[in-house]
Amino acid sequence: MPRRRFVTLAVVFGCVALLASTASAQDARLEAAKKEGKVVWYTSLALPSAEKVAKLFEQAHPGVKVEVHRTGSQRVLQRLMQELGANIRNADVVHTSDAGHFVLLKEKKLLMKYTPAGVDRFPAGFKDRDGYHYGLRATVSVIAYNSKAVSAAEAPKTWKDLLDPRWKGKLVTAHPGYSGIIATHVLALANLYGWDHLKQLAQNRLMLVQSAADPPGVVASGERPVAVNGAEYTFYKTKKKGNPLEIVYPKEGVPLIVSPSAITAFAPHPTSAKLFTDFTFSREVQQVLADSEGLYTGHPEVTYPTDKPKLSELRLLTVEAEELEKRNEEIKKRFVEFFGA
Amino acid sequence: MKAIPADRSFIVWVGAALALVALMALPLGWLAWVSVSSAAGPTLAHYLAVFTEPRLQKALWNTVVMALWVGLAAIAIGAPLAWLTARTDIPGKRVIRGLVLASFVTPPFLGAFAWVMLAGPNAGFLNKAWRAVTGFEDPLVNIFSMPGLIFVVAIYTFPYVYVMIANTLELIASDLEEAAAILGGSRAWVAVTITLPMVAPAILSGFILAVLQALALFGSPAILAMPAGFHTITTQIWSFFQYPPKVELAAAFSIPLLLATALLLQFQKMLLGRRGYAAVAGKSGQRRTIPLGAWKYPALAGALLVMACAIFLPYSVLAKAAFVRAWAQPLTWDNITVANWSFTFFEYSATQSAVLNTLELGVMTATVGAVLAALLAYIANRKIIAGHQVLGFLALAPVVIPGVVLAVGLFIAYTRPPFVLYGTLWIMFVAYVTKEMPIGYSQSDTTFKGIHPELEEAARGLGAGRLRVLREITGPLARAGVIATWCFIFIGVIRELSASIILFTPATKVMSVVIFDLKEEGQFGAISVLGLFMLAMTFATVVLVQAVLGRDFMGARD
To answer: Which domains does chain A have, with CATH numbers?
Structure first.
C-alpha cells in the first residue's frame, strides 16, 4: 500500500515537474518572442482568413505582433525571391498554395528545419520527408455557379461540361500566374485530360481574374454565372454569407491543394516564427480554419461542418510537388497562350 | 547681372550632375545595358525574343491602338468642353471647370475599378438597368474590352486636352472671329475656319499629351484589359517580373516605350515652337461671349453627361460599394454595413503602414521636389550660372520616361551594390522625385517668370545681398507658387501606381499598391474604402492649392 502510494505520488510529481518544465520553457519562449516583438508572415491564405489567424495569435500572445503580407502564391514567391536578390531578409514564415515552391525553397536552402508540435499525427500528404515544411491547410478546386442565373438542372456537372459552347462568355477562371491553387488545378486537369482540354475551354472566352478567392465574388455578383475553378473554401464562405451560389464537385475528381508552411532559414524573428508556427498547427487554430473558414486540415481531431463533403467522400486529383515545381513555367506559359493574358 | 564666383556655380553643377546620375543616368544606363547583355557577352537576343514573339507583338499593337484612340477620344471630349467654357454663355461654367479638375486628379485606376462595377457586362449597374428597360439580352457596354478600356482612359485623360485648348482660347482675341461673322460667316463656319486653325497646335499638343498618358498607364489596363485576355506594354513589362523574373526582357521591352515617348514629345515641341500665331500671342483684344441660344441646354446636358461618366457615376458606385456587404446587390438595410471600414482600417494590417508610407513619401517628395524645382527654376530664370539653360532641360527631361520604364531601370540599378535602395522607401522617393520633377519645374518656372527681376534689382541696388533679397523679396513673392508646386507633386505621389508596383516590397507598400493587391483578390469593399480615402486626401490638397493660388490650378499659365 505505501509502496503503491509512493509510486502514484512519484508519477504525479513527475507529471507536475514535466508540466512545469514545459510551461517554463513555454514562458521562456514567449519572453524571447516578445523581445523580437513580431513575426512576419508571407501568406497566400485569403485575406480575411489570414487576418483572423493573426488576430487569434496576437490575442493568445500579447506583445508579439503578426505582420500579414497577403498576396497570391506566385506573388509571395516573387516578392520573397526579389527581396533575397537584394539581400533583404524580411520574411519569417512562408505559406503558399503551390507545393512546388517548397521544393524550390528547400533546394535553395532557404528553409529552416522545424517540426511544429503535434504534426507527427498528420497524414503523409501533409508532411515533408525531411522535416522542412508541413501542410497548414487544404482545399479543393471546384466548379461553382450562381443559382439565380443557372438552374441546378442546367448547371455543369463535370469538367467536360464546361467545354460546351453554350457557356461562351459566361465563365470565369482565376490565374495560375497568381494563384498556387489554380496552378495546381491547371496541372491536375492537364494530367487528366491533356492540354487540349484547356485549349478548348479557352474557346468559351473566359473572364480572367487573378486570385482563387476572386471567382466566388464574380459568380455571386452575377458578372459571370459559372466559375471553372477556385478555392472551395472561399466559395463555401461566400455561400454561407447568403449569396446565391452552389458548389459542384465533379465526380471525375477535384484537384486537392495542400498548402505548406515553413520557417525561412534566415528568419529575423526565429522564436516568434516557431511560436507562430506551433500555434497555427494547434488543434484550436486548425479547428477554426475548418469551422469558420471552410478549410480542410491534416489534424486528425478536427471536425468539419456537416453541410460540406468530407475529403474522404471526394475523389481527389493530386499532383506531385516536384512535378509542380518543374512545370511551373510551362503551366503559366500554356495558360497565357490559350487565354491571352 | 554680376558674374557669380566660379566656386559657387561649381557646387551647383556638381550637385546637378550627381542628381542627374542618380535619378536618370544610372537607371537608364542599367536599363540599356541589361537589355543587351547576357552571360556570354553583348547580345541582341532579348530584343529578338521580345519582338518576334507574337504574344508580345500583340501587346505592342494593343498599346498603340489604345493610345491613339484615347488621344482622339480626349480631343472629342476635351475640345468642345474647352470651347464651351471659354467662349460661350453655357451656364455653370465654374462648376464644369471644377468637375474637369476633379476628373484630372482622379486616380485613373480608381476610375477603372469603379467602371468595373458600372459596366461589367452582366453585373454592372448600367447594363442591368439597360436590360431591365429594354429587355435585351446583350449588354449595353462591355467594359472588359478594348473600346471599354479606351473609354475609361479617355474620360480621365481629356483634361489634358481641355487645359491646352481652354488656355489657348483665353489668349485669343475675338476680333478675327467677329470679322468673319460680320462678313456673313455662320457660327459653325467661323468656328471651323477661324477658331479651329488658331487652336490647332493646342489640340495637337493636347492629343500628344493624352497619348503619352495612355501609353504610360498601368492600372487601367491591368484592371480592364487583363480580365479580357489581353496585355498592353506596361502590364506585359510588369508580368516579366513574375518568378523566375525576366528582367532583361522587361528592359528590352521598355526601350520602345521610351523611344515612342521621346519622339512624341520632340514632335510636340516642334509644334509648339512653331506657334508663331500673332493672334495667339497677346492678351490685348477682347474675348466676346458667343450666345448658344437654343443650344444652351443641350450643350450643358452634354457637358454633364461627360461629368456623369467621369465623376458622378464612378464616385457614387465607390461610395455604395464602401458601405455594403455585396456591391452588386441593392441598397437595402441588411446589405448596408460599416464592416468594410472597420476591416480596412483596423483589421487589415497593411492599411495603416501603407497610409503612413504614402504620407511620408508624399510629404518628402513634395518638399524636396518643390524646393529643388524652385531652386532650379530660380537659377535658370535669373541666369545665375553659366549654362543655366541646361539645368532647365535636365529638369524637364524625365518627362520622356514612363513610370514603368523608370521603375525597371531603378529596380536594376538599385538592387545591386554600390547602392542597394530596393526594400527601402528611398527607391520610391527617387522614382517619385524623378517622375514629378518636370511638372514641378514647369510650375516653378511659371512662378519665377511672374516675378519681375526689377524688384530684386532695386533691393540689390540698395545694398542687400543675394540671400537677403531671396529671403525678403523673392521668397515671399514666390511663396504661393512654391506651395502650389508642393501640392501638385503631393497629388502626383499619392496616386502613383505604375512605378510603385515594380519597386515596392512588402515592407514598403503604399496605398495604390495595397489597392492593387486588394483588386487582385477581389475585395471590392476594402478597395472602395481606400479609394474614397485617397480621393479625400487628393481633394483636401486641391482645396489647399485653390486657396493659396486664388484660382483653380488648371488656369492659364501666363
So the answer is: 37-137+257-309 (3.40.190.10), 140-256+313-339 (3.40.190.10)
